[in-house]
Write a structure and sequence with these properties.
The structure is a single chain. The chain is built from three helices and six strands, in the order βββαβααββ. The protein is an alpha+beta fold and 137 residues long. It has one domain: RutC-like (60s Ribosomal Protein L30, Chain: A), CATH 3.30.1330.40. It is globular.
Length: 137
């Protein structure tokens, strides 16, 4: 764990699996990451119809934003994940978890999963959008 952030894990709540209840930012800068979809550097949607491929591209995009600000993925303290189909997300959780570990390792920020009826880029084939907050030293 980095010294400028620490997980908040209340003993009165169940042990979290794959997320943290919260993070305390002790010092540093906050980076607010706009909702990222599965668009590559040429603005093409990657993995149309494939939630796992899109999750990978979204993680790649988040990593690009965090890196551009001088941080890394373990600086991310909050993610909000919006999906068109929660059942599909849950069905692919094992594969999504593998991709997650490729980018975040064993770092689990506070997370929220929201089923959305629509996303701004859904008409272009986007199935997922993720926004976040990173605490940079």
């Amino acid at each position: 764990m980095k010294e400028h952030i620490s997980a908040v894990l209340p003993h009165t709540l169940p042990k979290p699996a794959g997320f943290s209840y919260g993070f305390e930012v002790k010092h540093g800068r906050l980076l607010f990451i706009a909702g990222q979809v599965a668009r590559d550097q040429n603005n093409a949607v990657v993995g149309k119809g494939d939630l796992v491929a899109q999750f990978r591209q979204v993680c790649r995009n988040i990593q690009a934003v965090v890196s551009a600000a001088g941080g890394d993925m373990t600086d991310v303290v909050k993610l909000t994940i919006y999906v068109l189909d929660v059942a599909d997300y849950k069905a692919r959780l094992r594969e999504i978890g593998g991709v997650y570990r490729d980018y975040f390792g064993k770092h689990f920020p506070a997370m929220t999963l929201v089923g959305a009826r629509d996303l701004f880029d859904a008409a272009d084939g986007c199935l997922i959008e993720i926004e976040g907050v990173a605490a940079l030293a």
